[in-house]
Amino acid sequence: MAAVQHEDGSSFTGGPTTSWLGFLVPSLAAGAFLGLLSQLPRTEAGETITFTIPWVPSLGISASFFIDGLNLLFALLISGIGFFVAIYAAGYLRGHPLLRRFYLYLLLFMVSMLGLVLAADLIMLFVFWELTTIASYLLIGFNHEAKAARRAALQALLLTTLGGLCLLAGLILLGSATGSYNWVEILANTDHLSQHPLYTPILLLLLLGAFSKSAQFPWHFWLPNAMAAPTPVSAYLHSATMVKAGIYLLARVHPLLASTELWEWALTLVGSATGVIAAVLSLRQTDLKLALAYSTVVALGLLTMFLGSDDSVAIAAAITFVLVHSCYKAGLFMVVGIIDHQTGTRDLRKLGGLGRAMPICWFCAMAAALSMAGFPPFLGFIGKELKYEGALAIATEPILVVGAAVFTNVLMVAVAATLALKPFLGPRRTQRVHISDGSPTLWLGPLVLSALGVAFGLFTPLIAEGLVQPAVATILGRPEVVQFKLWHGINVPLLLSLITLVFGIAAFMAQGPLRAGIGRLLQRLPTTSDRLWDAGLSTLKWCAAAQTQLLQSGLLRRYLFVIFAAIATVMAFALWRNADLIPGLALPGLNVKEWTALALVAAAAVLTTAARSPLAAICALGALGVGMALLYLFFGAPDLAITQLLVETLFLILAVAALRQLPAVSSARRRLLRPLDALLATAVGAAFTITTLAVIQAPFHSEVSEYFIAKAVPEALGRNIVNVILVDFRALDTFGEVVVVFTAAIAAATLVAARNRESGK
Amino acid sequence: MNSVVLQTATRALVALLLMFSVYMLIRGHNQPGGGFIAGLIAAAAFTLFALAWGATAARSALRVQPGTLAALGVLLAGASAMVAGLAGEPLFTGQWLFLGGADGDKKVALSSVLVFDIGIYLAVLGAALVLIFALEEKS
Amino acid sequence: MTIADTNPLVLAYAVKAASWLLLTALGLSFIRVARGPTLADRVVALDVLNIIAVAYCALLAIASGRAVYLDVAIALALVAFLVTVAFARYIEYGGVQVNREREVTGDADD
Amino acid sequence: MSWLLSLPFLAPIIAALITYLTRGQPRASRVVSVCSCTVLLGTTLTLFTLVESGGVLTAQPGDWPAPFGITLVVDRLSATMLLITAVVGLAVAIYALSDIDTGREKLGYHCFFQLLLAGVCGSFATGDLFNLYVWFEVMLIASFALLVLGSEGIQLDGGIKYVAMNLVSTLLMLTAIGLLYGISGTLNMADLHLQLARADNPMAMDLLRVLFLCAFGIKAALFPLFFWLPASYHAPPLVVTAVFAGLLTKVGVYALIRTFTLIFPQGDGFGHQLLLAAALATMLTGVLGAAAQNEFRKILSFHIVSQIGFIVLGLALNSPLALAGAIFYMVHNIVAKTNLFLISGTASRLSGSYELVQTGGLYQAAPLLATLFFIAAFSLAGFPPLSGFWAKFLLLKASLDQAAYWVTAVALVTGALTLFSMSKIWAEAFWKRHPTGNCQGVGALGFGERVQRLAPAIALALITLLLGLAPEPFIRFCLSAAQELLDPSDYLTAVLTSGT
Amino acid sequence: MPMTETLVALLVLGGSFFGFTAALGLLRMPDIYTRMSTSGKAATFCCGLLLAAVATLFRDPQVTARALAAILFLLLTVPLGAHMIARAAFRVKSPMWQGTEVDNDAKPDSAAPKQSSAD
Amino acid sequence: MRLFLLNILLAIAWTALTASATLLNFVAGFLLGYLALAISHRQGRDREYFRRLPRALGLAALFLRELLVSSLRTIYEVLSPPPNSKPRIIRVPLEIRDNRQILTLTYLLLLTPGTLVLDVARGKDAIYVHTLFAQDAEAFRLELQRGFERRVREVMS
Amino acid sequence: METAVALAIGILVATGVYLMLERCLLQYLFGLVLLSNAANLAIFAAGRLTRATPPLVPAGMTEPPQPVANPLSQALILTALVIGFGLLAFALALIARSYARFGTLNSDRIRVAEPVTPEENRDG
Ligand code: NA
Ligand code: NA
């Protein structure tokens, strides 16, 4: 586990103490919160509010938004907690040189997250999904000069993006399968999807997206690493909101996809595994923030597990838990942040006795921890009761689910106790003298959020009817009645709660030995996800390097070999497809002069190849030129013959002039016979021979050349038809051609000029 | 190359080659020849000069920088192409001006096509000389 | 005016024989180009090859009755020697010193 | 019309000649170069608007009717490519003002740059296959010149490989064109479409298909023909790399698109299957190659390869959506890639190196540059709401629509690996502390240099943003362009009645 | 006019025979100097005769002029090339047939005599 | 030279007058003009022109004879079995110094089969000749000096 | 005659490719020349080989009296020839320049742009 840097907790200098953004962001959050709250009555009544503007109509994508029971809950959380986090950040990052950027990123995140949950269009959802990834990347790497922060940012980015890409594929398939990209339209008809041939790919792709975003096992490790971000970010993105995007998605597609065993098993198993593993790891942590991070993973695992069910109690449990967890976890994170800020450390072993100096914090920590541990009358209690009830209601594998729930809750009680007691009791262990709760901007958020835990617990009907019930109804696609009570009478859930408390306290007492035990256990594990990640990355780099070394060898002849081999291969392939059409070699028809010219060409080519000295090769090229010119001449092309001779002559002169600068016998020791090269060369040559034959044995369409022959004198007023083509019919070619020659010449001269300059120096 | 024979013969040969190149240029529209061929022959003439007297001497015999000559050639070819555009016809359309009789091969024709060919002649000549001089001066 | 409508017997056979002779000559000079042994030998052979090609152009003009081939002959006659002169200079003044040879080519035997 | 269709290559050629004649006075050359690019932008914008509203434009230089004379033809694809060429051209011309040293200017930088533009524009504007070859050569030789301009050792080495492999491609192309003429008797691409549809020579057709595939595949840097690109793109001065990255390979891709839609439509799918295999391999090898690099420009160079794979993938899938995706991807990629190179130049100017190990600190020192990089890089990685997202989306959707799941998977993996490289640059050059602490801010540059370096980057980043935020007009355009490619009847009518 | 044709035939045959001997000389002569002595000129004659044949056959002033021009050009260029090669070979002391007799005072006076240019 | 040009002009005039643009007619015109000029320029400095033409013709005749003889010898040389001639390299001192004269002499020797001018001595006072058929070096020198060299000097000075 | 010409093209291509696969850059260049000739010959063949008259119209006529060789393929080759000359000349200059810079023509040894080890990536 990479060590989380503690630098973000120290006080900053050099930056602005505040910024207009410091007012803007909370104001916007508050505005959004209030605006959304005003819609509550309508969603409570089961209404869906939509808003659409066209965006990319040609692809059926629109910038449409909607509000229903499910996303309103999330949106309220996002804007509400966003408000407190923004205020908290003003105090926490006061004086940070990059404060303005922080607010911008925070704003970007908040808007994206709201967009994500409110988007009615699948593609819009994806757009915001990726935007939250970007914001998260920038915020995790906020402390950008620390290597661990950069590593964590990259890890989170890559994992969530990989998932995001799967999600995109899944959403596109979903759009194709349902014929619409609009949630409202898609959800209006949820019957047939489980029969659709694309059901399984859609489901798997969406799950991959959701699981990676919500840090489900085996992608759970990025979230604790993401604690490299400043604490407000951890509180906001990595516990309260962004990581719940996956949960939101699962809830959103629940009515569409949840009817199969695949869904149930996938979510139940992954969720419970995540919960159990993270709970164990959480207990082990001595860094307060990491302990919180793992407990967040626990919560996410449990949420996933519950969403695997189709039962209304389980769903209600999940939704309530979303609400509860967001409040107490954000509060706890902020408290930890304050401790870190004030003492310079968040290591349990170095903390103690802060209760007197930081009374508000202690209060907040206690309240939140009690909620987390599930004590009445806190909202957490209701949440936990519901959880057990829900767990019992899950039909597939109640023992497993209940077991996972109880086990994780036991450990969570221990963790909560640790968080609420350890730093505040006992002797002071820190050097710093001036330790306090800090400014109100710091403690306002935790205070309100922790207090809400109590308030919600006391005013349950409001929550149940206003928030949870519409959300559950949305998820299940049918109206449901959800009722919260602090006292249900003595039943199985209550018994389970008691067991949880007892064992939880026991675990808290025995945390020293437990921690050591877990440590030993972990050491015996062959690997961890995080190490696997590193191994994966280095495998990737190794593959990349190996591939590059193999392909991009830096050797020109090898490049050319591959290119020619590719040419030969595809041509052979094309020939093989048409094997029955390969023309036979019918020799004949040539008279002796043509044979001679051809033989001269061929012999000169061979001589060029076999010549031991470049000068001999040049002589051979001269002979080749004569042979070519004669060929042209024999077949009625005097202009070509002349040009060939002139060009050949000038080139040979240039070559001889250049050779005066080059080693005279450069190829004295060249390997004349290279079987592999010879094989390839023969193959390419044969392919070209066959291609030429295949082309010229067919009848020719001469309309175009006939036109030139007919029009040259009457319309172009020239008797040399070739020249007329060059300067009139196809003058544009010729123009381009002289441009080429001009360019080639001055380019070559440039090479030489640079040389002269160099030697002049 | 410091050879009496070569240097002396060159004087005559260069003149001959240049004359021949102009001949090939002018008759190119009706007989084998044309701007390329003529330009290459003219380039051969200066190449001979450069071989005999050195590239520097050849350069000064040419008087214009060969690169400039080439650029002007391309410009001339381009201009002849654009003449038609100014006359409202598509670019590169041949523009003809006949002097004397209108009878077949007897008339003297001035045309943008010939100008185009002259442009090519100059461009090819200039470009070839740029190359030759560059490599010759290096050696 | 081609061979067919002039004196078919004498001229046609003469042209045929001449064609064989010249083509053989072409081949023979090519052999010298290939065999060398010195660069000068190759260059001289190439020169002869060129001149025989000029001759063949003239022969073509006779055989076909088209003077066009003369233009090719003229062009070839005018420029072919340039290569020879360029080579001559190379032979006389040479390329880079031979003793740099090892260092510059470095074609190992791998 | 003849003027308008000729101007995209005529203006740069004239500018090139003027800058050559005035190469002794760099200041004059600079003015001419920027003016020419502005004219080019104006012309291509006009063309784009005309094509968008009125369909295919044609002209017959020399006034000989098609298919006998050479046809200049601008359809939606050509118009798009011309416009984006002009945009990139202007951006690079401005950037070059502060990036190219006077020595190189006197060697003719501006001249070669204009000639390169001429070659690129000519290639896009012509409707004649052999004329395409000629323009390819103009482009190629100008690129040779730009690549080795200044003749530093690394340039010469890169130049050798670049030249060596590209000349092979050129000769392949020439041979293929010649042989295609042998089958069809024509060079006019529209006429070729008709003649080849009638030709009964399946073997020759298949062989020519693969010949063209190889010839243009080398130019486009397809697997396994791309070696020249990573071998050379980091060698020349930065602006040169930037314009190469933006335009050169895309001309090859453009030629592939024309070849495999107009000249050799799908047929029995042989050519398209080969294209598909090449595209997938290109995507993966390119992006893996990038993962192995630790130099700013080398990473970007390998990504060019990978992204060429994406574009060719669109061509290989051969559906309206896929082709639209290919076109969108191409434009997006030209803008983003050019911009990334421009940004890398400024980044190395400020932090002193292209080697990621030796650079850093730009996040704090140059926030504007960081923003620009972030936009371009994440667009390249396909993040919404940037242009790259839509490019990726179109191709993904096209592949999913055809149930080509393997293709989707490769595309997704490639996307993730692209992100890996981009974030590597971000982390190393921007986030990391500079190893020596010597990282300047943008403010350290003079006013002129600041404008010349940043204005083009900002403009290109705005295009990336605009294409990402309001993609509808361009996607619609791409869809109709794709329709035009798949059903070339308008194109054929326009060309074959041209000049009669 | 059979006379003309016969004359042409003779010129053609004679010319090509010269050409053939020129090439044969190249092969048969022992060293570069003897090869040059026998070949270059013979080849030039070959051309001259054939071109004369052309002029005779066509009896068209334009053709005659071109044939004469071709002969003139050949006469001007071939010896020049031959001389230059000979000079170079002489100066670098290209290997000489052992039977060659060299005057005592006939030593090349090139500035820096080099090794043979064998390639 | 002035007279030569005049002669050419006269030949052109003749060709134009006779309205028959054949080479033969032009040569006829040239000869007629030559005669006419020779008559009209009986006195004066320009008499040299009328001396030089016959000498040039004499040189041409000598050259053609040499050409014919040595051509045949060359053919024999090539076709006959092993070389029966005696190649020699001979230094021939020259009196002429003018470049154009040396050039002409060199060309004449180069065009003659069997002789090859290898080099012009640095001081232009001698040429090196490779010959196939010279039996005796001194005789060859004398023959060359009295033959070609003298005539060249006469025609061109 | 098609077969023979096609064979010649094949031989030119094969020898050209073989040369290009050598280490020495000069050999590469020579291979390129061969390949370039092969390309031209292929175009020539593609325009169909006819022992016909050169495409010239005699004076006084508006069309050639008898069949003429295909003028278009000739024009194409002419263009290609001249372009090829430019390209080959440039390649030659590049090779010469590289020799001056690196002191070798062995392309295996020219490893500045793609060094064997990163340390070698110093331009000097
Ligand atoms: Na790219
Ligand atoms: Na070529």
Overview of the structural elements:
The structure holds seven protein chains of seven kinds. Chain D contains 21 helices and two strands. Chain D is mainly α and 500 residues long. Chain D is globular, with a radius of gyration of 21 Å. The model of chain D has no long low-confidence stretch (mean pLDDT 94). Chain E is elongated and about 55 Å long. By secondary structure, chain E is mainly α. The longest helix of chain E is centred in the middle third of the chain and has 31 residues, at 61-91. In chain F, 64% of the residues lie in helices and 11% in strands. Chain F has a three-stranded antiparallel beta sheet with strand order 1-3-2, with helices on one face. In chain F, α1 (2-18) crosses α2, α3 runs antiparallel to α5 and α4 crosses α5 (137-156). Chain F starts with a helix and ends with a helix. The model of chain F has no long low-confidence stretch (mean pLDDT 81). At the A-D interface, β1, α5, α6, α22 and α23 of A face α5, α6, α7, α9 and α10 of D. β1 of chain E pairs parallel with β1 of chain F, so a sheet runs across the interface. One sodium ion binds at residues 36, 40, 80-81, 84 of chain G.
Protein traits:
heteroheptamer, E: 119 residues, mainly alpha, 71% helix, disordered C terminus, F: 157 residues, three-stranded antiparallel beta sheet, 5 helices, 3 strands, 64% helix, elongated, binds sodium ion
SS-based class of chain C: mainly alpha
- Uncertain spans of chain D: none
Proportion of strand residues of chain C: under 5%
Q: What's the total helix number of chain D?
A: 21
Q: Which class best fits the helix and strand makeup of chain D?
A: mainly alpha
Cα distance spanning the termini of chain C: 64 Å
The whole-angstrom Rg of chain D is 21 Å
pLDDT < 50 runs, ≥5 residues of chain C: 97-110
| Largest sheet descriptor of chain D | 2 strands, antiparallel
Strand content of chain D: under 5%
Number of strands of chain C: 0
Radius of gyration of chain C: 20 Å
Order of helices and strands of chain D: HHEEHHHHHHHHHHHHHHHHHHH
Counted by DSSP, the helix tally of chain C is: 4
**What is the mean pLDDT of chain D?**
94
What level of helicity do the residues of chain D show? over 70%
